[in-house]
Design a protein that fits this description.
- 4 copies of one chain form a homotetramer.
- Chain A is built from 8 helices and 13 strands.
- In chain A, helix 4 links the parallel strand 6 and strand 7.
- By secondary structure, chain A is of the alpha/beta class.
- In chain A, the strands form 3 sheets. A 7-stranded mixed beta sheet of chain A has the order 7-6-5-8-9-10-11. The first copy, chain A, has a 4-stranded antiparallel beta sheet with strand order 2-3-1-4, with helices on one face. Chain A has a two-stranded antiparallel ribbon with strand order 12-13.
- Chain A folds into 2 domains: 80 residues, 2-Layer Sandwich (Alpha-Beta Plaits); 194 residues, 3-Layer(aba) Sandwich (Rossmann fold), CATH 3.40.50.
- In chain A, 33% of the residues lie in helices and 30% in strands.
- The first copy, chain A, starts with a strand and ends with a strand.
- In chain A, helix 3 packs parallel to helix 8.
- At the A-D interface, helix 3 and helix 8 of A face helix 3 and helix 8 of D.
């Protein structure tokens, strides 16, 4: 079955839902999902509509063009996806490999509709994992000095491999502004704290020192500001005085895996809309 | 602002969303919320649509009649509500009063759009609470023998008071089938376990004896089968071997209050659809 | 039954457990609870021991003196409590009254072993609640200018009422250093965020603006640094893009009540040890 | 560092803590951890004590004998472990392999102090996983008829491999009473529901049909009664009407992995005491 999905954001106005719904219905599309959200404070409207392409009277190539007419009337930003476009994902990783392993296992078990042909790292440790799951492994050691040159090579690979989404699965390097700009809202990071608390390095040690009673993990889109991009998902777990830093790490790794996996799945299923450095998740 | 809400359930079929949306739009209604859900297994479709009545071209009294025409085409079950209809709620309670207190405090703080003019009990203990919050208190001691007669009196009061919703806030009496039939899907119970585990009496003691590591609370609509009606909301809390039955009770009371309050709020906001002994919650 | 409780913290060293245990046992005390914790990083040892005073061969008045000898050998800081000493609690509150109400209801239902004879506020709104539960109400409007004078009066009242613990149940005034010093580790605050995130004012609005997917509440002892004292308890709840600020507030109020109540109960049961701006909770 | 651990359960009586503590202290043992619990209802006492063997004046081989004298006075059941005894674990698995994979990855990352040399299955699907992590794979297809014979062969292997603990990591066969008796409280199962709800087969489908709002997972020791052995750990996750059975399965798999891992870790760290078909977890 071939589906089409449109994601829409625009200023709130009368008639948007009906207009979009009619666009699909009047062209003989069977609506499978339709979600909308209004942010009353921001006076903003968001919509996700999915329909079965079987019997749809507008040809696939023409849908965008036809929809543009509507979109213009409502000042919409919109994206159109088809279910046979399988995103290609590159995973970036440093020394910790639990998230990488977890992503591959979920891919294999059918949780993600994508391909993961590329792993990039500044270390050699994850090569056997990439190999085990049939992905190419590119090692780029990073120093302050060589970073621009290495990123250039990385970008070349990503382009050659036609990568649609980059996952930073505990990749402990800060990407340059130029890199981030090339993949705007297409880089998902997992940070091992409940942001905005403990942004930056070594959050578990700092959480331990602070004496918090809960730890967390946060997945977010990467922007030029470190750990400040739009939050996609978060979760927390209880700890106690009995837990040492290593216990926080162990417990936190479970959170990281789950939180990252949910964010990736929602992105791949085109369920995320970004506005105002925040996300709407049509789960 | 006067809003109208329609809740719809029907067999899944092409065009429902568009038809309902157009019904509102073409009559100049501004859609405020529109949620839909399809149960693929049951081939069932559910929808909730809310619109601003300002400028709506069908008169309030005629909306139901006009909508019937559409509804017939899709074999819809539907309910229509207006936001100026403030539901009247009766709370039933036995000896434990924490839920009753909690409901009144939430009402007072604006969490519930309803009136709570009536408290019914088989005991005298909650009278001062009802009085404090300006509600009438009716005490009906119940025995196996007098139950039918007492329920009859209760039903008279409920009718005189034009009660729309009954909340069993730890009311430890089983209502007869006849009573339940008079308020179908209009009686919400809080049960102090995560159903279907520990249905029936004394769930905390049984949970303790069983050695479970989590306890829970469940709010559900009351049907003729004890603790088996459609579940509206559940939540759980961790316990450990250090917790005695009294600790389970203390911790569980917090769950009961929150779980019941959410269920009541969703009901009052017309966000719940029931089918197949399950609920769809358009939160 | 009369119990004695000793709370101990000291540098970690061989023989502490045995020495303390023997102090109780050799004087014919029946140990009811004994918990210990070692912070390997800080090389610190913590212990809580509770025993039945029935038949204990050291007279109550002499226990402290006798125990001092042991304590000296291990450089212990220690506190001794008897179960017939019922703490007297003052609750400070501003405009929001949900925590105050909750504390009184829990007191009444037997969750707290204390008295709550005093409510202090910078507003008049909670007077009827204090009255309902038989507490005195003192209103002290606070301005930048009159704060020192008003605090002086407050301290007088607290002293006259022999107050052992102060609960800031959404009291929106910063206490001066002098005030805090008089009640060191005897002032418990509830902050409506998961600290260290969103310290300071208006955390729910800031959480909304930030787009977090979880909100939280934190209870902590008050020190001279705002929202930075030792954390006693925290909890979190999920939110989504559908939640407006008012929904965060509603959901957060449930967290605040539960988190504050746990902290207060643990304090009253002498289960909290503070070191290094952190807490050990012997629950 | 070599540690010794004693786990004790006995009727509650004066002097147990002091006696056990003195046994260690008077023989020059440095107590590293000491936890105790009293079940007031069952009048039962539980203790776990861990000490550094360095300088301990009783020889390792004689500790049990010497401790027996004490144990007799208090009718203790007790177990003695040394930290250099590394348990050998066999994992049983059927078609789902997520728990098996997870166990191996946690072993590799240092979360479990054990060896996992053996995987047993009634299917061929997990062989490559066992091989990847260097474990032997034994396939025993099971039918109603061949079960006794196959179990006999399994028991032979377990004995030859000197297996101390069996993990049923989604092994969908019921072990016979004879098998269970050979490994009493040494078989840990993961059940994919919050027991006692949905014991038996196909819990996710039944949870979906029932319309519950939370799902769960339970790890427990296996006894002759299906899904009724002592519960070690449980956890739950929220679901909604939007989740189909496959979503429950996906979400549940995360719970299963975490809940099973915690149970296994606690068992390996000798933190679990069983009594009255319940567990005390000294975490």
């Amino acid at each position: 079955m071939l589906n089409a999905t449109i994601l829409i954001s625009c200023p709130d106005k009368k008639g948007i839902t009906a207009t979009v719904t009619n666009f699909v219905y009047n062209n003989n599309g069977n609506i499978l999902h339709s979600d909308q959200h209004t942010d009353d404070e921001a006076k903003a409207f968001f919509m996700r509509i999915v329909w079965d392409m079987k019997g749809f009277t507008i040809k696939r190539e023409m849908i965008g063009k036809k929809f543009s007419a509507i979109a213009g009337n409502f000042e919409m930003k919109w994206e159109l996806y088809f279910s046979d476009q399988v995103p290609r994902v590159a995973v970036f990783v440093s020394k910790q490999t639990h998230c990488l392993y977890d992503l591959f296992l979920r891919l294999k078990s059918g949780q993600f509709r994508c391909e993961m042909p590329v792993v990039v790292s500044n270390h050699p440790y994850a090569e056997h994992i990439a190999r085990e799951f049939g992905a190419k492994y590119y090692e780029f050691p990073i120093t302050a000095k060589n970073k621009p040159a290495q990123e250039k090579k990385q970008l070349n690979i990503l382009e050659n491999e036609r990568i649609d989404l980059i996952i930073l699965a505990r990749y402990h390097q800060i990407l340059t502004r130029g890199f981030v700009d090339r993949y705007r809202m297409k880089i998902i990071n997992i940070h091992h704290s409940f942001l905005p608390a403990f942004a930056g390095s070594d959050p578990y040690s700092r959480a331990f020192k602070k004496g918090v009673k809960i730890i967390g993990a946060t997945s977010h889109y990467v922007t030029e500001k470190l750990d400040e991009g739009p939050i996609i998902e978060q979760d927390t777990a209880r700890i106690s005085h009995r837990d040492a830093v290593k216990d926080l790490i162990r417990s936190g790794e479970d959170l990281e895996k789950m939180v990252l996996a949910r964010a990736v799945r929602w992105h791949l299923e085109r369920k995320i809309l970004v506005y105002d450095n925040k996300t709407v998740i049509f789960d």
